[in-house]
């Protein structure tokens, strides 16, 4: 028996976390409605790494046999000296089950969105939720509806998080990231982490001859209005002009980069009240240096839906937060530590940069 049989569930946000939650709740028998402020299901940025923990959720959602059509199976992660180009280590990923994968974000969103539609999920697109209550009401486009449960999967600037916790603005992490694509590249499915003092670049191939590039630089402050904007390729090239020729050549191929200030919140203290729960970046935004933000959102989505199927909602929501908070807190601390490792701030990385060959414990992803 599922406590979700015919329960009405609203999901605010149609990103990776929201769509995974919509599909999971629907698989457990709920009638699900997604409110997404954008006019279409879409994602900013190009590539995303889905690690085996996220892959397990995609499999549980019934998508395992469709993943090869939408992604590449990763072979390895390879940290490199960004100045000499020399590979420092190679972490083999071919034995991972399920496979570690490189997706184009649009492909992952498309896969989740079409599975939701096939499962009967209702979508309200162009529907910004202006208000939500902990007793299950959602107001969008001037219409208020009541649900048995509301899931706030509305990202870094979540209205749902603000209702459950202090209404604080996210803080700047001291890091900016350019994101872009290089076309016409044939490369092995390997993620390269190019490390240099105060900066790093992660590159990995996507389907159709694209190379995904994320270039991160430390900065004192974020002066631009808003969280991201189009930037001139020359600014990206100038920021990495002190790196080696191989990396500079790759960066020169990025012709339409966007620049992001990386902001976050602490892990939320309160993830639920009454009939409202939050997940993904709404609950625990992270620096992307462990490639776990979306993977953790996938885990949240499945854990929340499974708890609500197994238990009455007043027992399920505390169980959900208790089981998730310690794990996401550890992952976020590891991502922060990777900022130091990748930017050659840690002792081990400094030793590696000085010419030794081992980087044994650096985390095998970016
Ligand atoms: P979001 O993706 O932010 O989705 C929120 C959705 O809610 C959006 O569609 C938004 O339009 C909608 N919304 C917001 N407010 C409202 C409202 N009031 N009403 C209606 N709709 C609303 N993670 C990984 O796992 N692997 C990676 O390789 C990886 N690489 C990254 C690289 C970079 C440079 C960055 C910045 C992040 C990376 N991440 C990665 C992190 C990952 O992108 C995020 O953690 C993940 O997308 C969060 O998903 P989400 O669904 O919780 O939130």
From TrEMBL:
UniProt xrefs under InterPro entries? FAD-bd, FAD-dep_Monooxygenase_BioMet, FAD/NAD-bd_sf
Entry keywords, A to Z: FAD, Flavoprotein, Monooxygenase, Oxidoreductase
GO molecular function list: monooxygenase activity
Q: Which residues form a coiled coil?
A: none
Q: Which cofactor does it need?
A: FAD
Domain FAD-binding per the UniProt entry, residue ranges? 7-333
Superkingdom assignment: Bacteria
Q: Which PANTHER family match?
A: GERANYLGERANYL DIPHOSPHATE REDUCTASE, MONOOXYGENASE
**Name recorded for this polypeptide:** FAD-dependent monooxygenase
Whose protein is this, by species? Pseudosulfitobacter koreensis
């Amino acid at each position: 028996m599922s406590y979700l049989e015919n329960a009405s569930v609203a999901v605010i946000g149609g990103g990776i976390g929201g769509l995974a939650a919509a599909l999971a709740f629907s698989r457990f028998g709920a009638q699900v409605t997604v409110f997404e402020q954008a006019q279409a299901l879409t994602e900013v940025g190009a590539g995303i790494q889905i690690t085996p923990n996220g892959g397990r959720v995609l499999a549980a959602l019934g998508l395992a046999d469709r993943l090869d059509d939408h992604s590449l199976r990763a072979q390895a992660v390879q940290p490199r000296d960004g100045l000499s180009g020399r590979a420092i280590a190679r972490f083999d990923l071919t034995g991972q089950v399920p496979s570690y994968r490189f997706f184009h974000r649009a492909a992952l969103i498309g896969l989740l969105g079409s599975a939701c539609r096939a499962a009967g999920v209702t979508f309200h697109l162009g529907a910004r939720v202006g208000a939500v209550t902990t007793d299950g009401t959602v107001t969008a486009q001037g219409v208020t509806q009541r649900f048995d449960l509301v899931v706030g999967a509305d990202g870094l600037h979540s209205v749902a998080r603000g209702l459950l916790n202090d209404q604080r603005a996210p803080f700047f992490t001291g890091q900016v990231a350019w994101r872009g694509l290089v076309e016409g590249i044939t490369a092995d499915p390997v993620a390269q982490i190019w490390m240099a003092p105060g900066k790093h670049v992660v590159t990995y191939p996507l389907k159709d001859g694209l190379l995904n590039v994320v270039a991160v630089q430390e900065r004192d402050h974020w002066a631009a209005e808003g969280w991201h904007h189009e930037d001139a390729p020359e600014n990206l090239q100038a920021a990495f002009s002190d790196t080696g020729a191989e990396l500079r050549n790759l960066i020169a191929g990025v012709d339409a980069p966007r620049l992001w200030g990386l902001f976050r919140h602490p892990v939320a203290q309160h993830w639920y009240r009454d009939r409202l729960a939050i997940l993904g970046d709404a609950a625990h935004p992270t620096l992307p240096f462990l490639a776990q933000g979306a993977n953790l959102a996938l885990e949240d989505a499945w854990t929340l839906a499974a708890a609500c199927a197994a238990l009455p909602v007043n027992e399920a929501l505390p169980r959900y937060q208790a089981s998730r908070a310690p794990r996401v807190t550890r992952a976020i601390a590891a991502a922060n530590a990777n900022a130091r490792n990748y930017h050659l701030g840690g002792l081990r990385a400094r030793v590696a940069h000085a010419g030794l060959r081992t980087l044994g414990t650096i985390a095998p992803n970016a």
